[in-house]
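Protocol step 4 of 5: obtain the predicted structure for the target chain.
Materials: sequence only (see below). No template structures provided, no constraints applied. The aim of this step is simply to have a reference model before the mutagenesis design in step 5. Sequence pasted as it appears in the construct record:
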Amino acid sequence: MKDIKLNFNYSIGNNKPCFIIAEIGSNHDNSYIKAIKLINKAKEAGADAVKFQIFSADKHYSKYTPGFKYLKKRNTYNLIKKLEIDRNWIKKLKTYCDKKKIIFFASPCDLEAIKILKNINTKLYKVASFDITDLNLIKNIAKLKKPIILSTGMCSETDISDAIKTCKKYGNNKIILLQCTSLYPAPKVISNLNSIKTMRDKFQVITGYSDHTLDEDAALISICLGSKVLEKHFTLSKKLKGPDHKFACEPQEFKKMVNKIRLFEKMMGDGKKKGPNKLEIEMFKKGRRSIHAVRNIKKGEILKFKDIIIKRPGLGIKPKDLTKILNKKVKKNILKDKWITKDMI
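Step 4 output (structure tokens):
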């Protein structure tokens, strides 16, 4: 699994910090000013990227689509129509993000949206869980040879395998899979976070988590399970009227989450056992055991087992080297209860 390099020196990889995405989606509420403010707040909160959604109601939903329960069964087509982003913004938003040195990308939901993103040299693409079975959509993104994030909410292994095979068929191995629960908000108890590791091992790709829960718990646990991409919905206020605001993170919440993620990453470490950390040196020297004298031992005596005791501090010869010094001549006087060093034997 090679690292995936993006602009502004960002990289996504198994030995890299988690790549954190503020999912703006449609939370701009058709206000360009609000979209810019969301980008600014995401940058301030520590996000590495912002993601938008580019869809057209006519190409996205049938007018006869039944209403979703979580949207109080409002007319789906009419709601989506109101949430469409003005496609004339896309280039300007990308340029603004470039100036702010935060990655801009989007979920293109139709071929025209893919073309728009291609024309502005977008470095990263996302396919939503609902769209992962649209292999034609995936094909047209994969052909761009840019990194592609596939969200896997509701997916079987077959669904995921089909999407990956499509990417690879068109020469794209820069694949990232995100575990996701496609409910808004998502109950914690069905997060299935272990699938982050399961998908990484089975499909040999970078994996992460798209979080729809109401707090940071699942996101933080995902870090401990090796999540290298984290996506969380982002809003200026949960009190706004759009459908995605209520379960999204406000700026201060997002910042708190990012800070905890960075702390958790340090806490996880590299997994290698290399002896004491430099902060543990005092404990290492004074708290470990070494060989001590149980009596005053004079120069010239032969050191016997009855003459020593193993206790703290660890400033003398290590216990494992005991046999190397037994029955050896003592070179200088050793005080009772003093640790024995190599120069004394």
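Step 4 remarks: DSSP finds twelve helices and twelve strands in the chain. The longest strand covers residues 19-25.
Proceed to step 5.
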